[in-house]
Design brief:
CATH superfamily of the largest domain: Nucleotide cyclase, GGDEF domain
Radius of gyration: 43 Å
Shape: rod-shaped
Mean pLDDT: 80
Number of domains: 3
Number of strands: 13
Largest sheet: 8 strands, mixed
Strand content: 15-25%
Low-confidence stretches: 1-21, 169-200
Number of helices: 17
Order of helices and strands: HHHHHHEHEHEHEHEHHEHHEEHEEHEHEE
CATH topology of the largest domain: Alpha-Beta Plaits
Helix content: 40-55%
CATH class of the largest domain: Alpha Beta
CATH architecture of the largest domain: 2-Layer Sandwich
């Protein structure tokens, strides 16, 4: 810190800024150093009480000794900051009070946070020791002095701002070294909170703070409550961990960090689609309302000023984790609902054409359409009834399903609509319900592929199936029948004639009507069968469809 950034040590009789100030800079320095010395005295006493030669060092005492050492390190850091802060500037140099305010807000609070936090954990550890009121009293006095330091720091911040009143000095008097009336996690008003969060907590929490003492303190406190904890010493490391770990459920984020501050980290989190829902709790020494509002507006769940009461922190963490678990369950339910809806829609599409299914979902109750021209195909397995008595029902269904599955694949490839299967008969249409140019040509092409598919399946399965195929082109009526079990079907002479083309055909042959022949004759080689007697229609001229013309 340069001399221009140091707070001057004024003479006690010299008022600062204006005559209405009730305290001086020297008053603050005196009170701050008294609290520091008080903490050091009680910390030294604690070390003597915790490690007498005759008792040895059990695990609890060893851990407590280490925590007392961390309190000593923190308060030494505090003492160095005070030396730096209250050293006089060089002659003729001015004082930068804005820098002083920033120092008070952040730098001084960091060691105090460690003192208060480790003291509160030491009080919890006392429960595991044989009753020793002297040990407990010293810890309580350290904690008391830590809270007194916080009050002094807040008042000192006001002292540097002319427009804010400063408390009277007697309101900030150092409490007695044996005073145990502390504002800690053992305060009676917090017992209700303790009871509400007494259950075992679970959850993976990421602590982001550039100060190792802050991370250690938080990690140990949360670890005692049953949380899994990960640490990041910078914003960049935090983002890296969040990208690698999928089970982090809450982020405790410091604001003042080098390279990437807490605002930047929060902005990156909320911009990430995967991490945007992750709860973020800001923990910082900054206490300005602008910082609080900015963090909440950016998407943080809450804001706690260091040092914080661990019981309140614990209650907030529980609340936010529970909210996240509820959101996760809600999201899982929505995803499950979406999957079930997709299954239902897929089932509907297996029964109905997509265009018809969409009309049903939009609320149409009666669907009936007239088409001036469509091409209908029927295919039937020859001698299937007698064959069914020669093999087991399971094998029969399996083989029939294999055949019809091959036909379904062809229908999808050609853009045709399967209407239904009736026993061993297969029915499809071209040009319904969606218009299809040259539907007769497409159906003819597929019919030839159906014969090829049967041949391949026979070779593969060592079977000897044969099919008859009949095709007719003409007008049809199509629509939905049924109220609870939907069925999309076709009606009209075109359907009846196509059925007769199949039933009065021959094995491994494709019989087409005159209208279909006229639609495909330029592209396919056909052979006239002549006039045949079609049941219900009389004499009709039909053709055998052979193959596509090579140079059509």
């Amino acid at each position: 810190m340069s001399d221009t950034h140091r707070f001057s040590k004024m003479q006690e009789q010299t008022p600062v800024f204006s005559a209405n100030k009730q305290v001086t800079a020297q008053d603050f320095e005196t009170q701050l150093r008294i609290s520091v010395r008080t903490i050091l005295i009680h910390a030294h006493t604690l070390l003597e009480l915790l490690s007498p030669p005759q008792q040895g060092a059990d695990a609890t005492r060893t851990a407590m000794i280490a925590d007392v050492g961390k309190i000593q390190s923190a308060i030494e850091q505090m003492r160095l900051l005070l030396d730096e802060l209250f050293s006089p500037p060089a002659e003729g140099q001015t004082i930068d009070f804005s820098y002083f305010s920033a120092t008070v807000r952040h730098d001084l609070r960091t060691p105090i946070n460690a003192v208060v936090g480790y003291s509160e954990m030491l009080l919890e550890d006392c429960e595991d020791l044989v009753a020793n009121q002297t040990i407990k009293g010293n810890i309580e006095n350290i904690l008391n002095a830590g809270h007194h330091l916080l009050g002094l720091v807040d008042a000192l911040l006001q002292f540097t701002q002319v427009d804010k009143p400063v408390p009277k000095l007697e309101e900030l008097e150092q409490p007695s070294l044996l005073d145990s009336n502390i504002l800690s996690l053992h305060h009676p008003k917090l017992e209700k909170y303790k009871a509400r969060v007494a259950q075992d907590e679970t959850g993976h929490i990421l602590i982001v703070d550039d100060k190792s003492s802050n991370r250690d303190l938080l990690s140990r406190q949360l670890g005692r409550y049953g949380y899994q904890v990960s640490q990041a010493d910078s914003g960049k490391q935090a983002l890296k961990l969040l990208a690698e770990l999928d089970d982090i459920e809450l982020v405790l984020l410091d604001l003042i960090m080098p390279d990437m501050n807490g605002y930047d980290v929060l902005e990156r989190l909320k911009a990430d689609e995967k991490l945007a829902r992750l709860p973020v709790l800001i923990i910082s020494a900054l206490d300005e309302i602008d910082s609080v509002v900015r963090c909440i507006e950016m998407g943080a769940q809450d804001y706690l000023q260091k040092p914080f009461n661990p019981v309140i922190l614990r209650a907030k963490i529980n609340a936010y984790l529970e909210q996240k678990h509820l959101r996760d369950r809600e999201q899982a339910f929505i995803e499950q609902l979406k999957q079930e809806q997709e299954k239902s829609e897929q089932l509907l599409l297996n029964i109905l054409p997509q265009a018809i299914a969409e009309r049903l979902k939009q609320g149409e109750n009666t669907i009936a359409d007239s088409f001036n021209e469509a091409t209908v195909l029927f295919a039937d397995i020859v001698g299937f009834t007698s064959l069914s008595s020669q093999i087991s029902p399971v094998d029969l269904v399996k083989q029939l399903n294999e055949i019809f599955h091959a036909f379904d694949i062809l229908a999808e490839l050609y853009g045709l609509e399967k209407i239904k299967t009736i026993g061993d008969a297969y029915m499809l249409v071209g040009g319904v319900p969606t218009e299809l140019p040259n539907h007769a040509l497409v159906v003819a092409e597929m019919s030839i592929d159906m014969l090829d598919a049967i041949s391949r399946l026979n070779s593969q399965n060592h079977t000897d199936y044969q099919i008859r195929v009949g095709i007719h082109t003409g007008p049809v009526v199509a629509g939905i029948i049924g109220k609870y079990k939907f069925n999309y079907d076709l009606w009209g002479d075109t359907v009846n004639i196509a059925s007769r083309m199949e039933s009065q055909g021959r094995a491994d042959m494709i019989q087409v009507s005159q209208s279909t022949y006229q639609a495909i004759e330029k592209r396919f080689q056909c052979e006239s069968r002549g006039l045949i007697d079609i049941k219900g229609k009389g004499k009709m001229h039909t053709y055998w469809l052979k193959h596509a013309k090579l140079f059509a």
